[in-house]
Task: inverse folding
């Protein structure tokens, strides 16, 4: 089958196996080129391992430190007529490369929020890894079924307190326009915390500790985005920000509950990047197109792999991590410093339908968006007939 991108709104509904493999290979190459990273993790569990920041974490652990990795993701397998999801192909490519490098890698595909998945992961760790010394929590999901009650909660992306009117860019219609986002009600806020807050992270650590598969001095981190004034109304101080605040509570709870094993838990604040999760958030495509413009000019632009390589080497396994007042690892300074934010704000104020493509790096944003699905990558022949049926 010849596979061309099918973009619908903020999502691409198909993926290219060769392109995804190339994108994984590029990230592996980046890590390998950094040389010996010294002491690091040995047995790693990555929850949300197939795309974005979780995939970059797995690649850094495996190819930077030679770690065994067990991943969990929620991806669709290909069929005769439909391609698999990008994450499916990324996992297949990661497994191939890990196997060639003699590294243990296995992945379980299913709902990480369920108790069954926790049981399956624990069984696998016992059989094949012994104990884990690093747990990465990188899930981004629109809904979660509480394993205790069976109730399914949906997250919302809305401001909190009052309506918010701002500029946005509609990637589908190529239009900059004003949008008013109505505030969330209390139930929507609580539901978003249920989905994207720290409850499930805590449940994972509890289950792993109860089953005695956490190594002493194990580290765990969950990813957040904090941002600044421009994104606070729709992110930091919005429903998703409330959920992310709950991660801080969970980190402290995890440290407290598992002090016998000296478990260390941190929330890690990362920069805004194009991923499947962020492209669904209103305002983010506009904001990210502008920060790409500014940060590329400054020479500070980074993708998932550069951010995560930095997190591992300077925070998780570094001697001098940057911690903030809430005990979080901070990797977002190149984006959120005042000088860079002022430049973004100046562009934000000027941007209109007419000058959007001139002022922003939407071309860079769009390229990165297509790349998430294995498209628009140099060296990949998109006219070639490829077999979508890749297995792992
Ligand atoms: P992503 O969409 O690329 O990855 C999400 C991962 O979660 C995938 O591996 C997917 O398969 C998995 N997943 C989703 N639902 C699942 C389920 N029910 N069971 C098992 N796996 C499931 O997202 P991302 O942008 O890499 O986000 C990862 C984390 O990083 C999130 O917590 C996000 O808030 C945070 N973060 C993102 C940004 C950004 O700009 N993208 C910035 C800072 C922090």
Result:
């Amino acid at each position: 089958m010849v596979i061309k991108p099918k973009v619908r709104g903020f999502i691409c509904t198909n993926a290219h196996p060769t392109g995804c493999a190339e994108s994984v290979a590029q990230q592996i190459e980046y890590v390998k080129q950094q040389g010996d990273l010294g002491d690091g993790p040995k047995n790693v569990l990555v929850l949300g391992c197939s795309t974005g920041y979780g995939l970059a974490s797995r690649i850094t652990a495996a190819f930077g430190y030679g770690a065994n990795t067990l991943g969990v993701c929620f991806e669709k397998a290909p069929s005769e007529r439909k391609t698999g999801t990008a994450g499916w192909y990324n996992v297949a490519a990661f497994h191939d490369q890990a196997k060639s490098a003699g590294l243990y890698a296995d992945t379980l595909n299913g709902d990480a929020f369920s108790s069954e998945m926790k049981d399956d992961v624990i069984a696998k760790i016992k059989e094949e890894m012994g104990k884990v010394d690093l747990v990465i929590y990188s899930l981004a999901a629109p809904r979660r079924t509480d394993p205790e009650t069976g109730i399914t909660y949906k997250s919302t992306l809305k401001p909190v307190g009052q309506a918010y009117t701002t500029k946005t860019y509609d990637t589908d219609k190529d239009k900059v326009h004003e949008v008013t986002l109505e505030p969330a009600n209390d139930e929507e806020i609580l539901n978003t915390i249920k989905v994207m807050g720290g409850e499930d992270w805590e449940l994972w650590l509890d289950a792993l500790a109860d089953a005695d598969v956490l190594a002493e001095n194990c580290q765990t981190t969950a990813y957040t985005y904090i941002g600044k004034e421009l994104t606070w109304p729709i992110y930091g101080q919005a429903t998703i920000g409330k959920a992310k605040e709950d991660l801080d509570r969970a980190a402290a709870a995890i440290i407290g509950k598992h002090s016998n094993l000296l478990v260390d838990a941190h929330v890690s604040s990362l920069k805004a990047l194009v991923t499947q999760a962020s492209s669904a958030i209103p305002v983010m495509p506009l904001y990210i197109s502008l920060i790409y413009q500014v940060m590329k000019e400054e020479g500070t632009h980074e993708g998932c792999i550069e951010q995560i390589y930095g997190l591992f080497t300077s925070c998780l396994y570094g001697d001098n991590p940057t911690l903030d007042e809430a005990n979080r690892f901070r990797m977002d300074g190149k984006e959120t410093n005042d000088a860079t934010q002022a430049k973004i704000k100046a562009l934000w104020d000027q941007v209109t339908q007419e000058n959007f493509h001139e002022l922003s790096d939407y071309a860079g944003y769009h390229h990165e968006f297509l790349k998430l699905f294995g498209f628009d990558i140099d060296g990949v022949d998109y006219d070639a007939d490829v077999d979508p049926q890749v297995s792992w």
